[in-house]
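A quick aside before the break. I want you to see a complete sequence-to-structure record at least once, exactly as it would be stored in a machine-readable document. Don't worry about memorizing anything.
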Amino acid sequence: MSRDILVVYKKNFEEVHDRSLDEVRQVLDDLVGERGLNVGYTARETVRRADFVELDLVIVLGGDGTLTSIAHSVDENTPVMGVNSHPRVEGNGGSYGFFMGSDPSTFSEDVRSALDGDAIVNVLPRLQAEIETTSGNVIRSDPALNDLLIANTHQYQPSKYRLQRGEIDSMQHSSGCLFSTFVGQGAWFRHVADIEGAEFAPSEIDDHYLYVARDLPRADRAGDGSYWEWASEPTVITSDMHRGYVVSDGWDETHFTRGATLTVGLNGPKLSLLTFRGAILDGVSHWLS
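That is the input. The structure line, written in tokens, reads:
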């Protein structure tokens, strides 16, 4: 039976990315002959959600930003393989590629492992916001692998909202609320909140997320979880902003207006991310208790 594969690549006319695409294409051309694969190629800028229907494997060629922008459109049943098109070595300014389990030098071996079912399957939770408008319509934001921001669309104005989670019920004026998955905390969250030294129980990382009210006035930074928390219960935010937005992983925006209710939790579709020489959690084991 043939296997359907889609390669989504970063296209910015830099030679290093073009060269990596050529190397990946050569390997896959050989596999088409060996295994009868059906392989398609599309640039990140032109991809649509419909392109990911009924695929056996998605290969993302680029860096972490390319993968997070593409992963929004991939459901939890489709394995994703990240290939770092510009691996960082000293002085070359490449991509660290935390989520990228492969690179052109190992791709031939790795893609065969993926096709043979021998890869490490990392099932990663994702954040999602459900927005209920004042007219009763329900909209879901894109799922976020790293982080999700809720804020005033006018960044020079404060974000005004009611915050509810468990026993917490408070009105806040901040520069917005930032949520992070466990693995995503190094992308942005730790630059916003000082949680150095905090450790997390391995049993909690699939059902807990991090929350912080950005730039909340110092006097309002209570220790009751209304400022920052490692939370399991959903966070409910009622907007008192003329216009606000939800931004998932720094990509697509979902807008809302005053009176909208947003419920945030780890209820987004999970992502099945393949790695080959170690699990994703190995790279953040120093945060685990």
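Two observations worth writing down. The two ends are 45 Å apart (CA to CA). The chain has two domains: 4-118, 126-268. We'll return to this after the break.
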